[in-house]
Specification:
This protein is mainly beta. It contains 1 helix and 29 strands. A 5-stranded antiparallel beta sheet has the order 1-26-25-24-23, with no helix packed on it. Strands 2-29-28-27 form a 4-stranded antiparallel beta sheet, with no helix packed on it.
Length: about 375
């Protein structure tokens, strides 16, 4: 267990470090191997309907390592497929293959939204949503949602009723479940519980405990599909956020956003080996989110993460600015091999589309999409 030697003032929330992030001097990132005197790409800001066409290849898709070249399409551009000034914080994208739609959460507005692949139509999918954050679908096609407001993990049944899968552990309420994935072998649901929804009323209901650990130590859990038993997998992490399995289900990756509240927390993605399909061992750093921008090291946060079939990890990235915010792609050895620059902070990602080769990215008040040659490792 990591000892938290230094804690910031209780109650610090995402909106607080939004203000701090705005004060950080930001630069643009020069890709590996490119002329250092050449201007660094800063990312375009005009995604409106009257924006000029993007000249291929899209300059905001950066190849940092030759290993990323095979995934970048020369004739595919980043598209903003939905934007609304009324949307406050888009999160938790999940692809439904049967319905051919993307589902995502707008946490503060207490709604879930739906994007239809066939014509791009967007509508409200569910309201209220319990201030849901992460969403996924189990192997029977049922939606799993992590509710900040109700501090629970739920499943929506075929008849529209709700089954509560997790609400308390060891007699205490969960902090505020954040993201979930489903294991194919036994249908068990693995989820993270960092507690952001209990640290502010904006995304849930503030716990008012006077601690940055809302109700109990932040941890990663497993819900047994047959018995419903909830097992703590690890608390060797500050604030576990997005998570994903490796393609062979032998590893679990978890983004740590603990630096939002703990002074001594790293800004990284951790990885564990999966023991017998039910336990974790050998926790270690997979990669750091630090990146050199114009000669100065900057480190933002990885939030939502997904793996592709080749074992690369695609991580949302933000809270630094131009040249950093968007999606960072890491090879299986942890090397950053590519970037997708966005004009907004990216909170989460998932692969979808008919061929599961379309990367969807929730970015603050927008939904972005990009066709790639990568194929998502899992169903959502």
């Amino acid at each position: 267990m990591i000892m938290h030697q230094k804690q910031k003032t209780a109650g610090l929330a995402r909106r607080d470090f939004l203000t701090a992030a705005a004060a950080i001097a930001v630069g643009a990132h020069a890709a590996v191997g490119q002329d250092k005197k050449a201007p660094s790409p800063k990312g375009r800001s005009d995604y409106g309907k009257d924006a000029p066409p993007v000249r291929y290849p899209d300059p905001d898709i950066l190849v940092l390592d030759d290993r990323f070249k095979k995934y970048k399409l020369g004739n595919s551009a980043i598209r903003r497929v939905y934007h609304s000034k009324d949307m406050l914080w888009a999160e938790g994208p999940a692809w439904n293959g049967v319905g051919r739609y993307l589902l995502w959460s707008d946490i503060p507005n207490n709604v879930q939204m739906r994007y239809l692949e066939e014509d791009g139509h967007v509508s409200t999918f569910r309201h209220p949503s319990g201030n849901s954050n992460g969403n996924t679908f189990d192997w029977a096609g049922r939606q799993i949602a992590c509710e900040h407001g109700n501090r629970r993990v739920v499943r929506y049944e075929y008849d529209g009723t709700i089954t509560v899968l997790a609400h308390k552990v060891n007699g205490k309420e969960l902090n505020a479940p954040n993201d979930a994935v489903v294991h194919p072998d036994d249908g068990a649901i693995w989820f993270t519980d960092p507690g952001y929804g209990s640290l502010m009323n904006y995304e849930g209901h503030k716990a008012n405990t006077g601690s940055v650990q809302p109700l109990q130590k932040e941890a990663v859990y497993r819900i047994d599909a047959k018995t419903g038993k909830i097992t703590k997998l690890t608390d060797e992490i500050y604030k576990p956020n997005g998570l994903c399995f490796s393609p062979d289900y032998k590893k679990l990756y978890v983004a740590d956003t603990g630096a939002s509240h703990y002074d001594d927390a790293p800004r990284n993605i951790k990885v564990w080996d999966i023991d017998n399909g039910k336990k974790l061992k050998n926790g270690r750093e997979f990669t750091s989110m630090a990146l050199e921008i114009d000669g100065e090291e900057k480190a933002g946060f990885a939030d939502g993460i997904r793996a592709d079939k080749d074992g690369n990890v695609w991580a949302s990235a933000g809270w630094v600015g131009a040249g950093y915010d968007g999606v960072h792609i890491f090879a299986p050895d942890g090397t950053r091999i590519g970037q997708i620059l966005l004009p907004e902070i990216c909170s989460n990602v998932c692969f979808g589309g008919t061929k599961r080769n379309r990367l969807f990215m929730t970015g603050s008040q927008s939904l972005y999409a990009l066709y790639t040659e990568a194929i998502g490792a899992h169903i959502t």
